[in-house]
Amino acid sequence: MKADIDKMRKELVDARRVYEYEKKGNEELLEQNRAMEKNLIAMAREIEKLRADQASAERRARGVGGYGMLNGSPETRYPGPYGDVYGAGPWGSYDKRGPPRR
């Protein structure tokens, strides 16, 4: 009977040792995962920054509208309430209310 008790104690000590070893390993993996997640977030921010820089560089390279159009100059006028041309939409040629078409 005493031999059985000693055997059970030894198994319990071994089980505790294995449990602590696995727990330590899981903590290390958890720390690695946290570090990788921080790296991933930093890389995502950097990618978004680079995309924004690329888009602004492309706009500047094209030169569409000049400086005022790109940067919202106060000298630009607002469009009228009906747009530039009345009836210029896809059904504009069928609109009978506007001036006669040539």
Automatic annotation (TrEMBL):
Stretches assigned to coiled coil: 26-60
InterPro entries reported for this sequence: FLX/FLX-like (IPR040353)
Residue ranges, annotated region (Disordered): 64-102
Keywords noted in UniProt: Coiled coil, Developmental protein, Differentiation, Flowering
Record flagged with keyword Coiled coil: yes
GO BP: any one term: cell differentiation
Keyword Transmembrane included in the entry's annotation: no
Family in the record: Belongs to the FLX family.
Protein name: Protein FLX-like 3
Gene behind the chain: LOC105156387
